[in-house]
Amino acid sequence: MRNEQVPDRNIAMELVRTTEAAALAAARWVGRGDKNSADGAAVAAMRSMLDTVDMDGLIVIGEGVKDEAPMLYNGEHVGNGSGAQMDVAVDPLEGTRLTAEGRPGAVSVIAAAPRGTLFNPLDVFYMEKIAVGPAARGCIDLAAPISWNIEQVARAKGINKEEVTVIILDRDRNTGVADQVRAAGARIKFITDGDQPAAVSAAIEGTGVDMLLGIGGSTEGVVSACALKCVEGDFQGRLWARDDEQVRYAAEHGLSLTNILTIDDLVKSDDVFFAASGVTTGDLLKGVEYVAGGARSESLVMRARSGTIRRITTEHHWRKLQGITGDRYAP
């Protein structure tokens, strides 16, 4: 049995303050056409709030490597140093282009699990993915034909395969996937960015999405697996090389491009914490709404061990917050 140092309380309630801060900071840049400034603002805000969280955190999935990322880089220690030792995966702004262009679906995300339990894809940047909700848990197989998986999901949910809606990242590399989904008779919802919140949408009732398929970011796949563990959904992935250089890199670092990674391979713990806050309104979360003297935000906060899932609507009052946190919530 894995020897894990498990937090004795739900630290997701502390982690959500970091995603709220990042979402509020990024939202100032919605529609301004400057994705780098939006991302920088989100990173700085999340970093500042992470210092207050009771954990000894190590970023395993962050904003890049030291000296190439201003902060929240892979290998950085975060938290105040007390509490349990945790692996941390951060995406201060998932959907930088969505934010810059004022499009729906941008979020701020963080996930954490006991030290040594999160899979690290290193610099293999892409992953084939399939994600479903609790009803179809245990019914999927990434190695099987897409038509078979759609039939399995339809059967598990008690619907016709023609009623199954598959969400797919709109990229040329997913053209074959889309063709197979249509050939199977299912419906497609394309997204331009943000397959991480899309995977969560596939696992939550009421979003109109039944499954996620296609090739997207590998680090986003790990974070998605954390979220799906919290809702008792299912996820499988397989690292995908975009060119010969990536094939060589994977071989040199012992990363398989053929093995299917289950949700338990990606997150080797049942004590997973996940928090996300909306930046722009999408299927999963409402975006930041500014009001006189403050703003409103919506967040999703989950813990796998307890099965607790919370949707939190928060009113932020600038004057009072700045009296406590200084510039962390600067308007």
Question: What this model shows, in words?
Answer:
With 331 residues, the chain is of the alpha+beta class. It has helices spanning 12-27, 35-50, 96-100, 146-157, 175-183, 195-201, 218-230, 244-252, 263-266, 318-325, and strands at 56-61, 77-78, 85-94, 107-114, 126-132, 165-169, 187-191, 211-217, 234-240, 261-262, 273-278, 289-291, 294-303, 308-317. The strands form 2 sheets. Strands 1, 2, 3, 4, 11, 12, 13 and 14 form an 8-stranded mixed β-sheet that branches. The radius of gyration is 19 Å and the shape is globular. The N and C termini lie far apart (48 Å). The model has no long low-confidence stretch (mean pLDDT 91).
SSE blueprint:
Blueprint: H1 12-27, H2 35-50, E1 56-61, E2 77-78, E3 85-94, H3 96-100, E4 107-114, E5 126-132, H4 146-157, E6 165-169, H5 175-183, E7 187-191, H6 195-201, E8 211-217, H7 218-230, E9 234-240, H8 244-252, E10 261-262, H9 263-266, E11 273-278, E12 289-291, E13 294-303, E14 308-317, H10 318-325
Parallel strand pairs: 1-3, 6-7, 6-8
Antiparallel strand pairs: 1-2, 3-4, 4-11, 5-8, 5-9, 9-10, 11-13, 12-13, 13-14
Summarize the structure.
The chain is of the alpha+beta class and 331 residues long.
Percent strand equals 25-35%
Mean pLDDT rating: 91
The ordered string of helix (H) and strand (E) elements is HHEEEHEEHEHEHEHEHEHEEEEH
The 3D shape can be described as globular
| SS-derived structural category | alpha+beta
Rg, nearest Å:
19 Å
Instruction: Give the tally of β-strands.
Output: 14
Instruction: Enumerate the spans where pLDDT stays under 50 for 5 or more consecutive residues.
Output: none
Can you summarize the main beta sheet?
8 strands, mixed
How many H/I helices?
A: 10
Helix content: 25-40%
N- to C-terminal distance: 48 Å
